[in-house]
What does this fold into?
Amino acid sequence: MARIVAGIATSHVPAVGHAVDSGRTEDDYWKPMFQGYEFSKQWIKDNPADVDIIVYNDHASYFGMDIMPTFGIGTAGKYEICDEGYGPRPVPVVMGHPALSTHLAASLILDDFDMTVLNRLDVDHGLTVPMSLMYGQPDAWPTRVIPFPVNVVMYPQPSGERCLAIGKAIREAVQSFDEDITVRVWGTGGMSHQIQGARAGLINLPWDIQFMDDLINQPEVLQFKPHLEYMIEAGSEGVELIMWLIMRGALGDNVNEVYRFNHVPASNTSVGHLILTPKD
Amino acid sequence: MKPNFDQFNDIPGTTIFTMEMAQKGFQLNEFCMSLRTQENRDRFHADERTYLDEWDMSEDQKQAVLTRDFQKMLDNGGNVYFLSKIFAAEGMSYVQAVSTMTDMNVEEYQAMMVAGGRNIEGWRSKTERGEA
It folds into this structure.
């Protein structure tokens, strides 16, 4: 039986990818942020898993307005890297796990989550920057990956309740996969940031920290936070944080907080990072 | 459930990309998506007006692009992730591009970010700010 062994939450700022790719992680500006991930890089080496299900959003890199899936799941054998306007990031191609992702997609649809099945998908910084933060710069990524894109760009995004519920359904689906493999679920994006308009640059660190506490301790309450509150309190792009609820739902009722890190700023963003493990 | 696209209107200095705005901005955002290839970036930079005329965009949208008026692009249905293709193709960072929508220059904006970002106090509501 497959098992979910950990949850990882992290921001996915594009400039962080730039800093990695151009060798600037030791610059005065970047060093304190990257130092916050040193623990995590060691932890993930010491606690290997077979598959990473990475919940992220595409930033008009693969999906335009032609097709905008609310929840998607990659079922391909591999995923190429998007050109986001300045050429693709120089990172390894992302290898998939078609057997598990097919099982997951089918299981979720049978559980009434109307997934968009993606046999072809290129991935952008929303997925690759978290991998760079956790795995550094390997020649090949150490795990198989199942990309799980969510629309957080266009209102209406899926509700918090729906995100937590789909996370719970991912947990059940993984546990019903016959192969004996280990799986982590990642929730990416956030924390508070706004990258448009006269209010751009908004950061609300106390709100971010409360969000982390609630995510860990009372996701059943947090799921009802309306999108309007995310957008007012955490900025127009802070609503990405609903994706962390999917990760949390996949971990079961109670979790251990293995690690927590906050840093302001990376580019326009409040960086937040958690490593959680299921308690049950 | 009846959608409420107007619930975001009281947030100051903010344009929420709703499904309604996406309708308005479809061609503008499609144009932005076209800049994901070097070939199209080169064609656009060689003659911006001619390239824009290949798209069924409003004149307002075209003028906003030509003058790099990102706020005007937002007002016309653009979304910042789409618009990022325009500034990324010119080697501009999000900080540089985003700062142009504020009342700060890029140095002032970057200084604000390094000092912890824009404080939310006073920025929750147009009504509170007397802007509504």
The CA atoms of residues 64 and 73 of chain B lie 6 Å apart. The domain at 17-91 of chain B is CATH 1.10.700.10 (Protocatechuate 4,5-dioxygenase; Chain A).
